[in-house]
TrEMBL record:
This is Cytochrome b5 heme-binding domain-containing protein. The keyword Iron applies. SMART domains: Cyt-b5. The lineage of its organism: Eukaryota, Sar, Alveolata, Ciliophora, Intramacronucleata. Keywords: Heme, Iron, Membrane, Metal-binding, Transmembrane, Transmembrane helix. It comes from Paramecium sonneborni.
Length: 181
């Protein structure tokens, strides 16, 4: 199950959360939740692992009860992708932030800063802009749900840089030898 499905379900009034890579439908449980339904709605569509495990330590009984609400596992996509892959998918709105690839295609209309900013960085590296805007902790948590891969660092690029340095060294040595000896 991916973020697109979760977003669609949340828009249709369902209460869907991700906890430890499992997707939970808490729609029927929200009125019985001991902490109230507003907290569930606050994290609707989000990864609530930190809130469930750290901020509010749930009892073993609560953790056992959660099993009946599991509907699927969340697809944690950590595929290695290249710039060629990113730029060859023109129908998608991909954004790279800190070497991670995010598919913002379904999120673009819901982006709090407006869709224009995401479209401006379509299929590009938006790391600096993302850092400068000072996104909230909540925004950073939500973006993990849109992550589909990590940018691959090709060894060939590293080798070509070494090759270039070698050539520069040869040229410098040739110039030095020609003019100073």
């Amino acid at each position: 199950m991916d973020q697109n499905y979760i977003d669609k379900q949340a828009k249709q009034g369902k209460v869907i959360v991700v906890i430890k890579k499992l997707v939970y439908d808490l729609t029927e449980f929200k009125t019985r939740h001991p902490g109230g339904f507003k907290i569930l709605e606050k994290y609707n569509g989000y990864d609530a692992t930190r809130q469930f495990e750290v901020l509010v330590r749930h009892s073993q009984k609560a953790q056992e009860m959660m099993k009946e609400f599991v509907i699927d596992s969340f697809q944690d996509r950590k595929q290695k992708v290249t710039w060629e892959f990113i730029r060859s998918n023109e129908e998608k709105l991909y954004v790279v932030i800190e070497n991670n690839l995010y598919d913002c295609t379904e999120f673009v209309d819901n982006h709090p800063g407006g869709k224009e900013i995401l479209e401006l960085y379509k299929n590009q590296n938006a790391t600096e802009a993302f850092k400068q805007l000072g996104h909230s902790k909540e925004a950073r948590e939500k973006m993990n749900l849109y992550k589909i891969g990590e940018l691959e660092h090709k060894k060939a690029e590293g080798n070509s840089q070494k090759w270039l340095l070698f050539l520069i060294g040869v040229v410098v040595a040739y110039i030095y030898k020609s003019f100073f000896h």
